[in-house]
UniProtKB/TrEMBL annotation:
Gene3D superfamilies: Alpha-1-antitrypsin, domain 1, Antithrombin, subunit I, domain 2
Coiled-coil ranges from the UniProt annotation: none
Serpin domain ranges (all copies): 21-406
Protein name, UniProt field: Serpin domain-containing protein
Length: 408
C-alpha cells in the first residue's frame, strides 16, 4: 500500500463531522441507530477515484471543496496505515486499574480488583471490489485503489446470485467477527450487476478505565414519555473530560491508551434528544472539545448503561440530500475512470452496523456495500448519569469518526 504522509487538515475533519451530523439528523431522531461515517467515506473515496466531471465534484464537496484529489486519497490512505500501527492485544498488562475505587458498592475492600487489566485495542478496515466474471476495470483504477486503499478486486459469477451473495456475506462476516451478517441480498444481484464495492470496519477496545462488574445494577432507562425499560447500569468513579451547557452535557470516555474516545451527548431535558440533534453541528462540537472547561478532567461518578444496537441504513437518500446525485443517474453519471466509458452507475448503497458496550469496553463493526449496474483536575465529585436517550460518537485521536449513533 502507498505510504502517504499524514495530512493534518481541519477541512477533512469538519467535512466528516458535517457528514456524520447530517446522517444523524435524517436517521437518528426516533429510534436507536448506529453507523460508521468512516466506512461510508472510504467507499465514497474509492468511487471518487473513478469519478469524473460533475460526478467527482459532487463527491469532493462532501470531503472538502478546497482539497485536491491526491490530498483526499492520501488522507484516507494514512488512516488505514495509522490504524494498524495502533493495534495492541495483550491478555494481561502490568498496570493496575487507574482511578478506580478498590471497594465494591457495599464498601467492602476487594483485593481481586488489584488484578492487572487486560489490554485491548483493535481497529481494522478492509476494502474489496467484486467484479463480474470478464468485467475488467481500467488498470489505472485497479492500481490506484490497491495503492491507496489496499483494495483487491475479485472476480465472481453474478449469474449465480445466491452463491455470489453467500461468498460476499461470508467475507464480511468473517472480517467483523460475525457481527455484520447479510450485507448483500441475493435479490439485489441480477444480470445488470457489474461490480459490488465492499468496505468493512471492525473495532474492539477496552476502556482506559474499566467499569467494575460488581458495581453494575438494574436501573430504569426512560426511552420516551410512555416507555421506561430496565437496563443494566454500569457504575464507577473516574477522572473524565466533561462539559455542560443549557442544552446538554457531553462526557468523554477514552479507550485503551486514549487511542479512541466515546463522546456521549446527553440532553438536559429527559426527552430532548431530537431537539439536541437538530441543533447540533460541527462548529458546536469543535468549540466544546477545545473549551477550557472541557479540557480540565473532573472526578465524576459515571453511570452508563450496557447497550447493544444493530441497524441497517440505505444512505442513497442521505447522499442525494448532500448533493451527491449524479452517480445514481443513468443520464448524468460519469464513472469513466473505472471503465473508460460512461456506462456504469450506482444502483444501491447498503450499510450495516453493530455496537455492543459493556464494563470492559466496546465492540463495533460496520460494512458498506455499493452496487454498480451497467448504466488541571478538580477534586469535586460530579455525577454523570445516562438514564435517558443520548447521542454518541466514537472517534480516534485525530477526530476521525469511526462510529456514531443514538440510543433510545
Amino acid at each position: 500500500m502507498l505510504q502517504c504522509q499524514v495530512i493534518d487538515n481541519p477541512a477533512f475533519i469538519n467535512a466528516q463531522l458535517d457528514f456524520t451530523f447530517n446522517i444523524l439528523q435524517q436517521n437518528g431522531l426516533n429510534s436507536s441507530t448506529i453507523f460508521s461515517p468512516i466506512s461510508l467515506t472510504f467507499a465514497l473515496a474509492m468511487i471518487y477515484f473513478g469519478a469524473k466531471e460533475n460526478s467527482a465534484k459532487q463527491i469532493r464537496n462532501v470531503f472538502g471543496k478546497d482539497l485536491d484529489e491526491n490530498e483526499i486519497h492520501c488522507h484516507f490512505s494514512s488512516i488505514l496505515s495509522h490504524s494498524k500501527s495502533k493495534n495492541v492485544v495483550v491478555k494481561y498488562s502490568n498496570r493496575t486499574i487507574e482511578n478506580q475505587p478498590f471497594k465494591d458498592k457495599n464498601g467492602i475492600l476487594r483485593l481481586d480488583l488489584y488484578i492487572p487489566q487486560p489490554q485491548m485495542f483493535y481497529l481494522d478496515f478492509v476494502n474489496r471490489i467484486y467484479a463480474r466474471n470478464g468485467f475488467k476495470p481500467l488498470e489505472k483504477y485497479v492500481n490506484g485503489i490497491r495503492s491507496y486503499y489496499n483494495a483487491g478486486i475479485k472476480e465472481i459469477d453474478f449469474s449465480q446470485a445466491d452463491s455470489a451473495a453467500f461468498k460476499i456475506n461470508k467475507f464480511v462476516a468473517d472480517f467483523t467477527n460475525n457481527k455484520i451478517q447479510d450485507i448483500v441480498d441475493p435479490s439485489s444481484i441480477d444480470d445488470k450487476t457489474k461490480m459490488i464495492l465492499i468496505n468493512a470496519i471492525y473495532f474492539k477496545a477496552y476502556w482506559q478505565n474499566q467499569f467494575i462488574t460488581s458495581n453494575t445494577f438494574e436501573s430504569d432507562f426512560y426511552s420516551s414519555p410512555k416507555t421506561t425499560k430496565k437496563v443494566m447500569m454500569m457504575s464507577t468513579s473516574m477522572m473524565i473530560n466533561r462539559f455542560k451547557n443549557d442544552e446538554f452535557e457531553i462526557a468523554a470516555l477514552p479507550y485503551e491508551k486514549h487511542k479512541a474516545t466515546m463522546y456521549i451527548i446527553l440532553p438536559n431535558e429527559r426527552f430532548g434528544l431530537q431537539k439536541v440533534i437538530k441543533n447540533f453541528n460541527t462548529s458546536k462540537l469543535i468549540e466544546i472539545l477545545t473549551n477550557e472547561e472541557f479540557l480540565r478532567t473532573k472526578k465524576t461518578a459515571v453511570k452508563f448503561p450496557r447497550f447493544k444496537i444493530e441497524s441497517s441504513l440505505n444512505v442513497v437518500e442521505t447522499l442525494e440530500n448532500l448533493g451527491i446525485t449524479d452517480i445514481f443517474s443513468d443520464k448524468k453519471v460519469d464513472l469513466s475512470g473505472i471503465t473508460g466509458r460512461k456506462d456504469l452507475s450506482i444502483s444501491d448503497i447498503k450499510h450495516k452496523a453493530f455496537i455492543e458496550t459493556n464494563e470492559e469496553g466496546t465492540e463495533a463493526a460496520a460494512a458498506s456495500g455499493f452496487s454498480y449496474i451497467a448504466n488541571c483536575r478538580y477534586s469535586m465529585r460530579i455525577e454523570f448519569t445516562v438514564d435517558h436517550p443520548f447521542m454518541f460518537i466514537i472517534a480516534d485521536e485525530n477526530l476521525n469518526i469511526l462510529f456514531a449513533g443514538t440510543h433510545f
